[in-house]
Write a structure and sequence with these properties.
Blueprint (H helix, E strand, L loop, with lengths): L1 H15 L2 E3 L3 E6 L2 E6 L8 E5 L2 E5 L9 E3 L2 E3 L9 E2 L5 E2 L18 H15 L6 H10 L4 H10 L4 H13 L5 H10 L4 H11 L1
Parallel strand pairs: 1-4
Antiparallel strand pairs: 2-3, 4-5, 6-7, 8-9
Helix pairs in contact: 2-4, 3-4, 5-7
Pfam family, one: Choline_bind_2
Protein name: Putative cell wall binding repeat-containing protein
InterPro entries: Cell_wall/Cho-bd_repeat
């Protein structure tokens, strides 16, 4: 265990410059957030700190950071660094908490591409039945995202478009349309030929 803790601490120090381990102290809270008060009355600020075998990061004002990335490490809703887990935005971190390189590192939350991705995921989650590529693309464009930002969001959202095409076909069939009649409309909906063929094959 000591070897593992040292490895994490060393990585954090090399990445962020400062890391300390807590042996005594208590959590405090006010209307702005939470902070950790050391036994001597001081508090960590602009640094990582290990508290009860969990790593936390405190901003320059001393408040605990949560629900965001700090470098290659993700802090959960309770402020603790995630380990051996999938982050809320879908990326893997290892046992030492570091982002796993073979998973795509998310863009900075201030980046327009990332904002487009978040919007696409939220819009998709709100659709109880189905959504088409054209509808999502038009919505992103309406929100003011560029073609490049929209393309990124469409790809990064990892929506199963074949499944969405299946649902669209089922909706068309409820209107008594034949498969041949609906195919041009499926293309207008933004589905590719491969997605359309796969959807029909799945439905049989």
């Amino acid at each position: 265990m000591k070897k593992r803790v040292f490895t994490i601490a060393a990585a954090l120090v090399m990445t962020f410059g400062t890391a300390v381990t807590s042996f005594a102290g208590s959590w405090q809270e006010n209307g702005y957030g939470r902070w950790y008060q050391n036994e001597d009355g001081s508090y960590p600020a602009g640094q990582w700190k290990e508290i009860n075998r969990q790593w936390y990061y405190f901003d320059t004002n001393g408040y605990m950071v949560h629900d965001r990335w700090i470098g290659n490490y993700y802090l959960g809703f309770d402020g603790a660094m995630l380990t051996d887990a999938t982050t809320p935005d879908g990326y893997r971190v290892g046992a030492d908490g570091a982002w796993i390189p073979d998973s795509v590192r998310p863009a900075d939350p201030n980046d327009r591409k990332y904002s487009a991705y978040v919007y696409a995921k939220e819009m998709f989650s709100q659709e109880s039945s189905w959504i088409t590529p054209r509808a999502l693309r038009n919505s992103l464009t309406y929100q003011g995202f560029s073609s490049e930002e929209t393309d990124y969001a469409m790809d990064a959202s990892s929506i199963d478009w074949t499944l969405q095409c299946v649902k669209r076909i089922q909706a068309y069939r409820e209107t008594s349309w034949t498969d041949e009649v609906m195919k041009p409309y499926l293309k207008e909906d933004g589905f590719t030929d491969a997605q359309i063929d796969a959807a029909f094959a799945e439905l049989g």
